[in-house]
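Task: sequence in, structure out. Protein: Alpha/beta hydrolase.
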Amino acid sequence: MAPFLAYEDKGPDSSRQPLVPKVPLVLVHGHPFDRTMWAPQLETFSADRRVIAPDLRGYGASPVTPAVTDFSGFARDIEALLDELKVESFVLAGLSMGGQIAMDCYRLFPERVSGLVLADTFPSAETPQGVRTRDAMADRLLAEGMGGYADEVLERMVAPYAPDGVKAHVHGMMTATAPEGAAAALRARARRPGYDDLLTRVSVPALVVVGADDTFTPVSDALAMHAALPDAALHIIDGAAHMPNLERPDVFDQALGEFLARVDARQPSSAPPRP
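Result:
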């Protein structure tokens, strides 16, 4: 049974839907962060739609144990949470590892996904060297904790020129993450399936977003995903690295808002039938 995930659930009363309902938005954070990485988007989009942002298992306020052992466990946890919240269909957005989890969600329950947002992520399975690197990092985090790692990668997670407040927020999320949860996720992620072929079969609109200065998942990865997806928009955000939703929330939210409006327009009207 999936653990009970901590989560934000914000937005208007779902019982008072407009004639053309706004599709709920589900936001999946990356590693090693928590749901607060979506604070700007929760504030912006909950004004007129339901927005749900969970802490993944092992992160934030969600349980660390039982630890995730299979990458699909993250997707099944999200599915169980949305079942509990009675959210049947939704736009699913994920950044970095969260984007890979979003792809796994689409693999497992595509009928529930109305739109897919893939930010600063990539679909390929891990290489043998990548497996060894992630396993070694898991060992290191268990031995040393999160502090040294957070210091080393901060100015790749966000650009060196990012505002000090953004840097502090990102560093704080990383150092607050339980090493046990982060290590378990790294080992599971190292053994995830590839999603390259899956992307060619995505039947809903998609949005690919990337920071222009991202070195973890560079623009070339975004271009390849955009080319593979049958119906996708691409937005490259200048002045941002791996976390454009925090570094340039105004630009990120504009791109996401335009995408959401497009998905909303595809939904059937809830107007009562004519007599």
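The mean pLDDT is 94.
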